[in-house]
Amino acid sequence: MQTVLAEEFIGTPEGEKAKEVIAKCVHCGFCNATCPTYQLLGNELDGPRGRIYMMKEMFEGKTVTGITMEHLDHCLTCRACETTCPSGVRYSELVEVGRRVLETKVERPMKDKVVRWGLKELASNPAVFSKVAAVGYKVRPLLTESLQELLPERKAESLPLPTRVHQRKMLLLDGCVQPTLTPQTNIAAIRVLDAMGITLVRIEKAGCCGAIKHHMNDLEGAQEQARRNIDAWWPMISGQQADAIISTASGCGVQLEHYGDLLANDAQYADKARTVSGMARDISRVVQDELALLDAELLPQTAQPLKIAVQEPCSFQHALQNKGSISSLLKAFGFNPVAVRDGHLCCGSAGTYSVLQPELSEQLRTNKLESLQINSPDMIVTANVGCYGHLAAKSPIPIQHWIELVDEVIRVSGRQSLVADAVTA
C-alpha cells in the first residue's frame, strides 16, 4: 500500500519507518488467519490488516481517537502475523512506532496512566520488584485472585550452584522478574551448562533487558537500560572472556538480539550494541550446539519418560533467531513431546498484556490450556517466565521451564559432567 505522509511525519524516523513497512502490505488478509485477537473477536480492526490501515491513516494526517488506541492496545505483538505474511511485512516495527506516535495524539485516562507507570517502573527494576513481590508473597492468601496469579507458587527446593570454574564462559542475563518469581530456572541453566563445561557468569550491575519499557512506548527508558547492560558486560566482552550472552526467557532474548537496532543511532554505543546482539543466544541454542558434540547414546535418560506438551512462547517461535528445538532437546534426554493444537497462538501473557487486557488474556489462556492438553500430557514446558506464571495459575497439570527438566535428569544420573573438561581455580 502507498502511504502519503502528512507533513509532520515527512523525514521523521517514525514516518519513514511506517511508510517503509506499510508499502509491503498487499492487504491480502493472510495475517488475520493467525492473529489471536482476530480469532477471538472477529473484528477487522482487531487484526493486523485493520490495524495497519488505522496506522496508515494516522501517518497520513487523519484524525485518530480512543478507538484507534483501543484496537492497538488489543494487539499482543505476538508476531504470528509476521510468520504468516507472504509479503514479509514487519508488523512489529510498524506497531512500535505507531503506538509511540499515538501516545502523543490521544490522552489516556489517568487510571491507565498510573497502571502503566507502575508496570513500567516496578516490573523492570529487579531490586524494587523483589521487595514488592516479597510483601505480596507474605500476604498472598489475602490477595484477589488476579493479584495471586501475578505471584506464581515458588519451589521450596534450592539446588546448590556449581563451585568449579571452566575456561569457557558465557554471560547470563538474570532478567527483572525471573530471579524473584522463578529463580530455579536460571539456577538450572547454570547447572546444566556447568555439566557441559561452560561457566555462566552473572554480572550484578546488569538488570532488565529493556523489553517492558520498550513495549510500553518508553523508547528512551529501554535504550538507557540497554546501555547499562552493555556497560556491565563490556569488560568481559572486550577482554574476550565471554563466548555468548545467554537468556532463559525468550522475551528477553528477543530484546537482546535487537540491541543493535535499538541503539543504531547512538554514536557511542552503536558498535557495542551490534556486538551484544551478535552474541545473544537463547539457552536452547547453546544446549543444542553442545549436544551435537556429544555421543547421544551416552546422554543420561529420564527414568520417567513423561509425555510433554511444549508451549513455545510467541517470542520464541515468531521472533527469536538464535534458538534450538525444545522438543528435540527433550527427546535427547528421554522425554516424549506430544502434539499440541494451535501452537502458533498466544497464551495471553504477552509481557504486561495479562494485566492491561485481563478479559482477552483470560480467554486466550483458557484456549491455550485446552490446546496443550489434547494428547493428555503429564506436564507442560515453556521457555519464558511470563508464559510460565500465566499458565501455571490455571493449569491442572504441572508446568516447568524445559531447562529444569534437563537439570533434573543430569542431577538424578549422578554425573557432574557430560564432557571431559579442564577446570581452573
Descriptive notes:
This protein is α/β, with parallel strands linked by helices. The chain has four domains: about 5-105, Alpha-helical ferredoxin (Fumarate Reductase Iron-sulfur Protein, Chain B, domain 2), CATH 1.10.1060; about 110-150, no CATH class; about 165-285 and about 415-425, 3-Layer(aba) Sandwich (Rossmann fold), CATH 3.40.50; about 300-415, 3-Layer(aba) Sandwich (Rossmann fold), CATH 3.40.50. The protein is about 50% helix and about 10% strand. It has 23 helices and ten strands. The strands form three sheets. Strands 3-2-4-5 form a four-stranded parallel β-sheet. The longest helix is centred in the middle third of the chain and has 20 residues, at about 220-240. The chain starts with 12 loop residues before the first helix and ends with a strand.
Give the N-to-C terminal Cα separation: 61 Å
What is the number of strand segments?
A: 10
Multimerization state: single chain
Strand content: 5-15%
Task: Please give the structural blueprint.
Elements: H1 13-22, H2 36-41, H3 48-59, H4 66-74, H5 80-84, H6 91-105, H7 110-123, H8 126-138, H9 145-149, E1 165-166, E2 168-172, H10 178-181, H11 183-195, E3 198-202, H12 211-215, H13 219-238, E4 245-247, H14 250-257, H15 259-262, H16 270-279, E5 280-282, H17 283-291, E6 307-310, H18 314-319, H19 326-332, E7 336-338, H20 353-356, H21 358-372, E8 379-382, H22 385-392, E9 399-401, H23 402-413, E10 423-424
Parallel strand pairs: 2-3, 2-4, 4-5, 6-7, 6-8, 8-9
Antiparallel strand pairs: 1-10
Helix pairs in contact: 1-3, 1-6, 3-6, 4-6, 11-23
